[in-house]
UniProtKB/TrEMBL annotation:
The lineage of its organism: Bacteria, Pseudomonadati, Pseudomonadota, Alphaproteobacteria, Sphingomonadales. Its EC number is 3.5.1.81. The keyword S-adenosyl-L-methionine does not apply. Keywords: Hydrolase, Signal. This is N-acyl-D-amino-acid deacylase. It comes from the Bacteria. It holds the Pfam family Amidohydro_3. Residues 69-490 form the Amidohydrolase domain.
Amino acid sequence: MRNLKSKRLGFVSLVAVLLANPALASTLITGATVYDGSGAAGRQASVRVDGDRIVAVGKLRPRKGEGVIAGDGLVLAPGFIDAHSHHDRGDYADRSMPLLLAQGVTTIVIGQDGESAGAFAELAGKFAQRPAAINVASYTGHGHLRDVVMGKDYKRTATAAEVATMQGLLAADIEAGSLGLSTGLEYDPGIYSAHEELLSLARTAAAGGGRYISHMRNEDVTFDAALDELLDLGEKTGIPVQVSHMKLGLVDRWGGAKAVLAKLDAARARGIKVTADVYPYEYWQSTLTVLFPKRDFTDLAAARYALQHLTTPEGMLLGFYAPDPSLVGKTIAQVAAARGEDPAVTYLSLIQVAEAWKLANPDKGRAEAVIGTAMDPRDVADFIAWDHSVICSDGMIGSRHPRGAGAFAKILRLYVRDQKRLTLAQAIHKMTAQTAEQLGIAGRGLIRKGFSADLVLFDPDAVTDNATVEAPGAMAQGVAMVMVNGVVVADKSGAMASYPGRFLRRGVQ
């Protein structure tokens, strides 16, 4: 961009003026190429913000006493929405959310994989007392419902009475504003649920206008059966169904994304409202136990199968290990070599020690986490390019996985600028209006009059992810300004101590 340095210096000084004069009646953003989130091409326009709303878009002149942000040479877009996030873990320990703001993310969607930390109204009230810089929307976790109703006696099918109680809790959450029901069917306690239990809960969510999002029962060996289960829920209840962090995690299935997408397109043609979210990495982060659907952690054959077909010993890197933190950052291959063991034996041993640690420390939370390299980059790109997929990080603060600090910047760098799999307009649409529409988030995701003023100003030629497995917290670059609910929360110098974020209710702006 020509004269970008001088323009940015002017931009930064204007943001400083705005921060020093919070009583200014309105703010006008001028000179930027506006991508409004609809998928339309960018156009030159000015955007006026008054209070927490966008009040005008077009050829606008500054009003007397109005703050002006010069966005010359930059792109102005709606703030990005992370469709699947765990950045709330640690109770928003860093409320400024610098890793998210550096990527232009203004809203995260939590309560994923069947996890939620309490009833929706309780979580919303807690957030209102101590808000963060970004907005939060939430699903109700199926695992949370099972925890409340079944407690530690969860390794079985729920009774009809227990399912009815779960339905009551879910209905209350939907009424309070939850986006719908999330499941984590590869994890405890959701792995023990029957399909009929899910059907009952999906009907409850659908009756309240909610949605269903799922970490399916399997993402590798029995992927097809897991996907069929999700589609069956959508077909029988009419509820919109979304595949969480869609992937093919089986080496034998690499290159098969197009066949999966053809199946999803056929399901949509039958009237099933199926969508997906995807993160732009070939490796996942989960538990060591996730590759053992039968939960037999003494099964050497299962361990060997996992390390040959689902990943490799070199591709399983310990991101967290409470029993022995010195192992963090090492692969199963490296630990096995140091011990002089078969990697499969090491794998089982690491699980067994972690499970024992959890029993001995029931109040200390998770015991381990692993980053597994298991996807083909061609499949990841195909899933991202699908018309009905949106973008997520599946990330968190403090993780060894770089997705929490880099996913959205990586989309703009790799799939837009480098590979040209998406146009800039398409990528922005996926990260804004399409996500809002698929998840039921009202009044956000578009630069339109009356919409909430969640905005990001960035340089499309410079926006870049810097996070890696070795440096997972490395900040993205190229974002010049982020606004949440009409308040500037970050500029080129980074995040500010400003917390205008809101806990969003489904369908309510």
